[in-house]
Amino acid sequence: MLLKAWRFAASLIAVMAVIVVYRLLLPVNSTTVALTLLLVILGISAQWGLAEATAASVLAVLGFNFYFLPPVGTLTIQDPQNWVALLAFLVTAVTASQLSARARRRAEADEARRSEVERLYALVQAMSLTGSVRKTIREFVHRVVQVFGCEAAALYYKPTGEVFRSGPESAPASDHDLAVAAEIENASIDSDRGVATAPVRLGVRTLGSLALAGKLPSAEMVRAIADMVAITIEKARAIEDASHAEAARQGEVLKAALLDSLAHDIRTPLTSIKAAVTTLLGAEPAAGLPRELLDIINQGADRLNQLAAEVIAMARIEAGKLHLDKKAVAVDDLIAGALAELAPAARGREIAVEVPDDLPRAEVDVELAREVVKQFLENALKYSPEDAAVRVTAAVKSGKIVIGVADRGPGIEENERALIFDKFFRGRRHRFSTKGTGMGLAIAKGIAEAHGERIWVESEPGQGAAFYMSLAPAPSNVESRQQISSGRGFGGNET
User: Fold this and answer.
1) Which domains does the chain possess?
2) Would the pTM count as exceeding 0.90?
């Protein structure tokens, strides 16, 4: 207020000084006086503004009339031409003052906008993406206060419900106000309270809200800061997700490598145990060893060998290291191979195989596809009564070869069907009564997905269950092996 009064006084003194100089020290004609006063008014307008220039214009008109227009010494004007000159002077002075003040305001606005843009650029330069969303938001809030000179800033992050602040804890807005601001469409500036709020959005997705207190930038800049924090958060989240994904991938690779190493360490002694017990079982009874104990050892070795194979297979599937070696194969050969491997467990059980003679060959990794059929058969034999028949079918449906294995067991409850292919899942009724690891069907699903195919189950409680796998038919001219990628499945040379 004091500065404003000083400006008015200085403006009036400047006009009076011109009048005194031309009246007492340097006599000139009225035209020169008018032009000089006009220049002074323009200078006042350019330097201080319209209000000071208007006050100076009024004083200049009165002084010019009183001291330089006849009759001198009065505020009356005799010559009509002088009225025109005086009016022209007044209009010119006020108009020029307004134009000058407008140009000055525009220059100040441009300067303020340039300063804000520079500060926004400085904010961008100061930000470093750490790969942690929370750390990035916390740093952003502090940087906004530093760069824009605000008293306080706060950012509400909607996905976690957290509020990050810099400055007094109560400023610039409460947690509730920030949550409400996140749902409002546009930025809001309360000049009386000195608080600005804006929603933080990325496209149509709301990330939270931003609030500033104290020295506030323009509404456009508040929106620009909110947009920038949205982009910064999204970049930090993408880096964080990528980092987690890479860590998970490295973990899976390490796990697969570790299990592969353990497989050799476990399977090598298992092979020796299996060979030794097989030799002893084939020896003469005179060897003096209880056959019951040898059978237990033999079954235990088989069980450990199967468990090791399942763990290794599951690890390789999850690590994405299940390589396919596809070739055209007859479907009945796949089924026959699986039945041959399960011959001891299937001894005495009725298994009906229905495969049409004209069924096309399937293009698959033979070893892996056989493992899926084997898993279906193992489940059917394990969960159905010994006197119940197991039915194996194959047919072409919707351009795919579909192999199915159906049993007459207790079936699968409806709420368990969606989980039956999950790792380690076992049905409630058979969880403790039937041996198993819960990995077999998960492995079968991983094999089918590696082929770009699918497996599914159809079941009614008390009516049995039927498991199906789709396979791609081989092109008609394909008879020889087609190499898809190097490497084998999870069997082969583990020992």
Assistant:
1) 2-121 (no CATH), 128-242 (3.30.450.40), 246-318 (1.10.287), 326-471 (3.30.565.10)
2) no
